[in-house]
Amino acid sequence: MAVCRTLDVSSAGVSLDTAAWFPLGTGVGDDETVDALAVLPNSDLIAGGNFVTAGGAQVNSIARWNGAQWFPLGSGMPFFATVYALLALPDGSVIAGGDFQSAGGSSASNA
């Protein structure tokens, strides 16, 4: 299960409230892994790894958390793909690196 800690950003800096851990929905399956995280400019969280579902939605190794629920990111990756690295760009685009031959239906050998 994915969890998150709330960050309080102030002019004095960033403080972590350890009492504020909370689950991100039901997360990914018990035998599945999240290997990379990135935050989009709109504050949505992108998770990549080796998982089929997140929060009950079929997402195929890459998913978006909007603060309330998980969604697939496009059509995801092919079965048995693993995303090891993510980079969110200022325009909201996402670059993913990992062990896969295609992404979203387009050829992308181990991008």
Helical segment count: 0
Strand content: over 45%
Q: Could you give the distance between the termini?
A: 27 Å
Average pLDDT score: 80
- The string of secondary-structure elements, in order, is EEEEEEEEEEEEEE
Q: Pairing-aware structural class of the strands and helices?
A: mainly beta
Indicate the radius of gyration in whole angstroms: 15 Å
Q: Given the C-alpha coordinates, what overall shape results? A: globular
Name the strands of the widest sheet in spatial order: 5-6-9-10
Tell me the quaternary state. single chain
| E-strand count | 14
Low-confidence stretches: 1-15
Describe the main β-sheet briefly.
Answer: 4 strands, antiparallel
Determine the fraction of residues in helical runs and give it as a percent range.
under 10%
Folded structure, characterized:
It is a single chain. The protein has a domain at about 25-100. The protein contains no helices and 14 strands. The protein has strands at about 5, 5-10, 15, 20-25, 35-40, 45-50, 55, 55-60, 60-65, 70, 80-90, 95-100, 100-105, 105. Strands 5-6-9-10 form a 4-stranded antiparallel β-sheet, with no helix packed on it. The protein has a two-stranded antiparallel ribbon with strand order 1-4. A hairpin with a 5-residue loop joins strand 5 and strand 6. It is globular, with a radius of gyration of 15 Å. The protein starts with a strand and ends with a strand.
Secondary structure: elements and pairs:
Elements: E1 3-4, E2 7-10, E3 13-16, E4 22-23, E5 33-39, E6 45-50, E7 53-54, E8 57-58, E9 62-65, E10 70-72, E11 82-88, E12 94-99, E13 102-103, E14 106-107
Antiparallel strand pairs: 1-4, 2-3, 5-6, 6-9, 7-8, 9-10, 11-12, 13-14
